[in-house]
Design brief:
Layout lengths: L1 E6 L8 E6 L2 E5 L24 E3 L5 H4 L2 H6 L5 E5 H32 L11 H8 L2 E4 L5 E4 L2 E7 L7 E9 L2 E7 L22 E5 L14 H15 L3 E4 L5 H14 L11 E4 L1 H12 L1 H4 L2 H8 L10 E4 L2 H9 L5 E4 L9 H8 L6 E4 L8 H6 L4 E4 L2 E4 L3 E4 L9 H9 L7 E5 L3 H15 L3 E2 L6 E3 L4 E4 L20 H18 L6 H19 L1
Parallel strand pairs: 3-4, 4-5, 5-6, 10-11, 11-20, 12-15, 12-16, 13-14, 13-15, 16-19, 20-21
Antiparallel strand pairs: 1-2, 1-22, 2-3, 7-8, 8-9, 9-10, 17-18, 22-23
């Protein structure tokens, strides 16, 4: 009974973990790497044709994107996911295949023009994507299923994306049973449309993500709907376009939910009918799936609207563009507008054309609403790049670059801690994955030193004996040579994050002090102010 780490180890994308139980070979996710690739990933330890099952935590490409390649290489097993993940993976993998094919055609055309005879092959084809989707078998939340001899599983809503789940596996081999939990991407709390992540109580082993394991999401009293309304109003008044690079699945639908409120409440009276373009065939299809799946996945607030006959993500002057000609026409039209387009990290898709047109315009705004991987064009823009290369051309950045931190779909450090601390007994071992290089180590150290967990952050190739609870092999990361101008990512100081978490705890405690005697509250206030003055000096 062995666990082996393959991808998203000391990296954020390319999630993949391998399990061997008896004669069965199992993968948890098989994602594509996006943005900067820091470390070499070990190949799968067995041929694709020998993989029996693949579990999907959710449909994002960094968790599913290499499934068609697995099929191309011989995989004919079963893919296990929720119903919504199955539907979303279908459209996302077909979209990814289209991108692979288009990119290969573009590069081959360019090579032919330059006299370079090198032929570029796509990673996989549309046929590969369509065929692997047929292998997906959908399952519901919260029920324990017998997969095969020696393997039972349960899917639990983790609140990150429509259909996202943590995966509980009961593995039996040689009369020994162990339970391992894969967190998947843990969702942020109090997000629109989706329910909050649900916790798991028992496990021998846990493999958990750490995307924001070194920081807290900014908390302020501002309303994200009001914040978005102000950005839209400011940009339209300047005569520019608000371009929002957005993940087609999840983030786009939340934006539509917010904009519906803006229009319904007449929050921009100067422009009551401002046009909103969703320029992504994938996002259009995903939005339809969101509506079809509402009964199983929407939170109570969204369901309240549905019960009133209100579509929570539809409104007047919403324009959905499918064809390339419709996409091109958006920038020909000079009317100021909102453009929501994929990809969310600006590394592929139609948003690059909108950036090419709008980045050089001071009156336009580029608004980021999601995580930007190190090395991605989106991260470079957020880091203050003066220019960015698109389609072989250096584009000067004159547009306003903005971000809405409140829209993160990932739990922050406190949310991650809440999830792992919900286990009634500490797991024997916690493996920290899916985080930037230094963040994984930082979060594992926090779990170990401050919360008493036996935690570590493995590199690709690390192997663990689940039956006997010991490492078979602990590997070191093999760095990939990077260009000098590629960002290596940023890490927030552990001490600063601890200070912010303490501030939150003080704020929560203050709220509970309302019924205390006045003299006690005044003393507490004086003590706090004295402490602040001490550190000011």
């Amino acid at each position: 009974m062995e666990l082996r780490f393959i991808g998203a180890d000391h990296e954020v994308t390319g999630s993949c973990h391998y399990l061997q139980v008896g004669s069965k070979h199992i993968l948890i996710d098989y994602g594509m790497e996006q943005g900067e690739n820091i470390y070499e990933n070990e190949p799968l330890p067995v041929a694709a044709s020998k993989i029996d099952y693949v579990f999907l935590t959710h449909a994002h490409i960094d968790h599913t994107g290499m499934l068609p390649k697995l099929y191309h290489d011989g995989f004919r097993g079963t893919v296990i996911a929720t119903q919504a993940t199955a539907l979303l993976a279908d459209i996302m993998l077909r979209d990814s295949a289209h991108i692979q094919t288009s990119e290969a055609e573009y590069k081959n055309k360019k090579n032919k023009t330059s006299g370079d005879g090198h032929e570029v092959e796509p990673i996989y084809t549309m046929e590969d994507a369509m065929m692997v989707v047929k292998l997906i078998s959908p399952y519901g939340y919260d029920k324990i299923y017998q997969l095969c001899e020696g393997v039972k599983f349960r899917l639990t809503d983790i609140g990150h994306l429509l259909g996202s789940s943590s995966i509980e596996l009961w593995l039996t081999e040689g009369g020994v049973t162990k339970k391992i939990v894969f967190s998947g991407d843990i969702g942020n709390k109090n997000q629109p449309l989706l329910r909050d992540p649900r916790y798991t109580e028992e496990a021998d082993y846990v493999v958990m993500e750490s995307t924001y394991g070194d920081r807290l999401h900014e908390i302020d009293n501002s309303d994200p709907v009001e914040e978005l309304a102000n950005l839209i109003a400011d940009t339209l008044t300047q005569g520019g376009n608000l371009v929002i690079p957005s993940f087609a699945v999840g983030r786009t639908q939340v934006l539509l939910y917010y904009i519906r409120q803006i229009k319904q409440n007449d929050m921009i009276p100067e422009y009551p009918d401002f046009p909103v373009y969703v320029d992504s065939p994938l996002a259009v299809s995903a939005t339809e799936i969101f509506m079809e799946s509402q009964q199983d996945f929407f939170d109570e607030e969204a369901m309240a609207l549905v019960r009133q006959g209100i579509n929570p993500i539809n409104f007047k002057n919403l324009r959905l563009t499918i064809t390339a000609d419709e996409s091109k026409a958006i920038n020909v039209d000079e009317e100021p507008k909102v453009i929501i387009s994929a990809s969310g990290m600006c590394d592929a898709g139609r948003v690059r054309h909108h950036l090419q047109y709008n980045l050089g315009r001071p009156e336009s705004t580029i608004l980021f609403v999601g995580y930007q991987a190190a090395g991605s064009p989106g991260r470079k823009l957020l880091d203050g790049a003066d220019e960015i290369r698109l389609f072989g051309e250096d584009i000067q950045v004159r547009a306003r670059i903005a971000t809405m931190k409140s829209m993160s779909g990932h739990a922050d450090k406190q949310g991650l801690l809440d999830w792992i601390c919900a286990f009634k007994e500490k797991p024997k071992q916690v493996f920290v994955v899916h985080g930037e290089d230094m963040v994984t180590d930082s979060f594992a150290r926090c779990l170990k030193e401050e919360y008493g967990f036996n935690a570590m952050a493995p590199f690709s190739g690390t192997r663990y004996d689940l039956s006997n609870g010991k490492f078979i092999e602990i590997t070191k990361g093999i760095p990939i040579e990077q260009e000098e101008n590629v960002s290596r990512g940023r890490m927030v100081s552990d001490s600063y994050t601890k200070l912010k978490m303490s501030a939150r705890q003080i704020g929560d405690f203050v709220e509970k002090c309302k019924g205390l005697p006045n003299k006690d509250m005044e003393k507490f206030s004086r003590d706090l102010l004295a402490l602040i003055e001490k550190y000011k000096r």
